[in-house]
User: Which sequence fits this backbone?
């Protein structure tokens, strides 16, 4: 059963840069716990997002945000599929419509960063505060042919990814709808922090915050230094507000990798351990320790710093 390289929890999470691979993985995972479920609607959402993010959707520019990019959406939808599988194994499964709502909601949760042709300046990061409801509006407009109940559930899934608000701000019609939304909101937080380039990508997040005029960080070093505290807040949200559902990911890997390990949590721990070492380094040498994904080069290009 041990088919994965367990020395690297990051490797076990798969390649989220490759959208076709992610879509195939999502289909395989759903097929393992809901055989016969028709993923046509989810496939349609993948296609819509491809066109939208690539600048091939009439009326919209291609996605420009540095941190909230296609890889982030891919990691969230893949983690959502794994969450749904884990919940199913825990006896908390959802029906076909709510599988669709969770996955389509994951795909659309950050589409609010997309800029229309009329929105002339910026990268879309200026919509940080409003991107969730912009995403709901986009989904209602472009996926309006979905059955009304499914569309409602999908928009509630998107709304729950506004992590500045307590989950109580969304009123659910039934426990399955709530479970679908909690699965995706959990995947949004877990997926990004487990990415093997998370620490590098935090540097890009700084520029999004700056553009959004979300203060609180003097510079990229300040953001790096505060990331551990951010994780503590995130963990509190995951464990308390989102009911600790991320623990069910270990059940998924138990079946798919032959080991009951939560590779997401292990990856997050590795990132945080490494972050401690980076932050302990003097500022002028820090970026030398963040080599993944060519991100630092991009940061230096953007800022001519530090």
Assistant:
């Amino acid at each position: 059963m041990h088919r994965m390289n367990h020395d690297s929890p990051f490797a076990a999470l798969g390649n989220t840069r490759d959208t076709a691979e992610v879509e195939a993985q999502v289909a395989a995972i759903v097929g393992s716990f809901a055989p016969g479920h028709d993923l046509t609607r989810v496939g349609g959402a993948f296609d819509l997002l491809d066109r939208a993010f690539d600048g091939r959707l009439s009326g919209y520019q291609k996605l420009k945000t540095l941190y909230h990019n296609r890889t982030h959406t891919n990691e969230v939808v893949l983690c959502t599929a794994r969450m749904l599988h884990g919940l199913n194994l825990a006896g908390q499964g959802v029906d076909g419509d709510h599988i669709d709502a969770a996955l389509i909601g994951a795909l659309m949760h950050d589409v609010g960063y997309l800029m229309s042709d009329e929105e002339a300046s910026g990268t879309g990061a200026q919509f940080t505060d409003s991107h969730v409801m912009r995403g709901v509006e986009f989904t209602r407009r472009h996926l309006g042919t979905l059955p009304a109940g499914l569309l409602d559930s999908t928009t509630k899934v998107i709304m729950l990814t506004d992590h500045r608000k307590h989950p109580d701000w969304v009123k659910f019609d039934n426990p399955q709808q709530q479970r679908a939304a909690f699965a995706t909101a959990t995947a949004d937080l877990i997926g990004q922090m487990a990415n093997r380039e998370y620490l590098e990508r935090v540097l890009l997040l700084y520029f999004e915050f700056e553009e959004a005029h979300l203060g609180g960080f003097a510079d990229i070093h300040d953001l790096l230094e505060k990331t551990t505290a951010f994780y503590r807040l995130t963990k509190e949200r995951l464990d308390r507000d989102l009911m600790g559902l991320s623990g069910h990911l270990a059940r998924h890997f138990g079946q798919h990798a032959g080991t009951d390990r939560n590779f997401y949590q292990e990856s997050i721990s590795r990132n945080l351990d490494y972050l401690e070492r980076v932050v302990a380094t003097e500022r002028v040498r820090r970026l030398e320790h963040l080599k993944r994904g060519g991100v630092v080069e991009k940061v230096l290009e953007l800022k001519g710093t530090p």
